[in-house]
Amino acid sequence: MRRLFIQDSESPPTLSKLLILVIGIIFALVISDWLLGRFLPLITIERPFIMRFENVPGVQALWKYSEAGIKPVIFTGSSQVYTGISPHVFDDHLKTIAGQDVRSVNVSVLGSAAIIQRDLIKNFFIPYHPQIIFYGVEMRALRWEAQIAEGATFVSDFRNKAVGYAVSRESDFERGLLLWLLEYSNWARYRDNMREWLTGTREINQGPYISSGVDDVGYAPFPNVVGQDTANMPQFIPFAASDQTKQLMIDIGTICKQSSIQCILLNMPLHEISYQHISDAEESQYRQLLQDAGLTIWDFNTKACREALGDTSFINMNHLNSQGAEVFSKMLADAYAQAFFNVPIKGNASCATF
Question: What is the CA 253 to chain-centroid distance, rounded?
């Protein structure tokens, strides 16, 4: 009995030491994380490898707006949106025509398919309570082949990055913890950078990258080069609607409606040459999938819009060059001013259907 009593009497000191150790570890992590954030800008200009490299500024801008209590307009989609919509041009033009101060951000993902956008909209954008989410969609994003992680390089690459991995977690607790760490912890944000520095190998982000620089709100302008290259056409056709992709679009629509955040589908413009290859039947199936989401659609892929943009706005069949992106961003601002501030459209945005 005496031996048992002695063991029991020693328990409180042991628990106290354990508690002190835990507090010490937490304190050391907090201090080292703070110091890491101060020293990193002095030793590297690299952004944290939390997404495909060019998309990181858009994520950081969203975090910055959230910290400042700003509810931005979010533009999201694939490289068509990434290189085709400039938040700065949109904001400045809206200020000019409507006198409204709006902040927008471009958080797009190269090669983004609907399965990526569903996770981003549900688990990343909506929790920040933005003013509105514009999802710029295209035919290739709704092909079922683009959704399958095992066969779609861009999907698997996205999910191998920190943000993509976090937003695709089913557990609310796990997802919330990972996203909180990415936003507030330098150790978490720069984990992949440090692994590459130490090992000299890059296990992810093997895909091609846009060479032009991305700005501070997530827009990466293509050079102002004019072209009609249709090399990307195999990513669009043959196109056939699938039940799985239909369900993805229905899910996106349901998620937006349940959150009370307005989501608008932007049917992104293609060069007129695309319709020498895309059949009427394929186009019809694609447009039906957009309708299945049950969301408002702003259609800028009308013949009138393609003519308004003209040959000089495209670098290839489906991407706008920097001149085209400026024109299109202003068209979006004109449409936004009409829809939300009752400012009549005076520019080319009248080519769109709403």
Answer: 17
